[in-house]
Amino acid sequence: MNRRDILKTCSLFAVGSMFNLFKFEDALAVEGSYFKKYKKTLLVKEDGTPLKETDIQSNTALLFFYPYRSTPCYIINTGREVKPLDIKLNNGSVYRFTGGIGSKKGIVAYSAICPHQWSYPTKDFSLLNYYSSKEKSEITGKSGVIQCCAHISVFDPINGGSIVEGPAEFPLAAVSLVMEGGSIYATGIIGKDQFSEFFDLYKSDMIEQFGSLEKAKEEMDKTVVMEVEKHVKEQIKC
Ligand code: FES
Fold this sequence. Notes:
- The chain is α+β, with helices and mostly antiparallel strands.
- It is built from five helices and 16 strands.
- It has helices at residues 3-30, 195-201, 203-210, 213-216, 228-231; strands spanning 35-44, 60-65, 72-77, 85-88, 94-97, 107-111, 125-126, 128-131, 145-148, 153-156, 162-165, 174-180, 183-190, 222-224, 226-227, 234-235.
- It is globular.
- The two termini are 12 Å apart.
- Residues 1-32 have low confidence and may be disordered.
- The structure holds FE2/S2 (inorganic) cluster.
- The site of FE2/S2 (inorganic) cluster has 12 residues, from loops.
């Protein structure tokens, strides 16, 4: 994707945000809870067997879909303990991020929908990407972060997806993970999810890809975890 395409994409996000401004503020006003339980979904490998913590290399993000078959997430083995913490929002609300899972408590997962203007990893490209501790963003100089190159919002996977810098007003929503018998399940979303804005903005894309919005919103018993490159042609880092 060249510079012009990136700018065009960013303009689309800006227009989308104008359309969604009312609902966005409205949702904030009525939101009382920052944990929503969804279908308990087993994370599996591409061969259908349950994903184990040893399948996720340290400092690596893999991609899966949750809670809906159309909504992408990153699961990251941070390689270090991720502690629970309270996250405070700009509106004064506080919610509890439950920390990492696994033997080192270093595995976390986040919804890969940018809370600024809903950029997400499509089959063609992704502006919202994980930067391991071994790579540095050219623009922000940050490592070990999830960064969105649409308007340079940076999120910290070690601290519950909280905002490091940029225009986003909400942290990344986290996926609640549990480990049972060595298998990993997703059970819900912690934080301010972006699904209603996402489905409003990308309604026609969803219908084109899945046949209907209802199908795009199907929840699953199992979700396949894959290398990001398997789903996204170009990860645009900045
Ligand atoms: S969509 Fe604006 S920073 Fe991600």
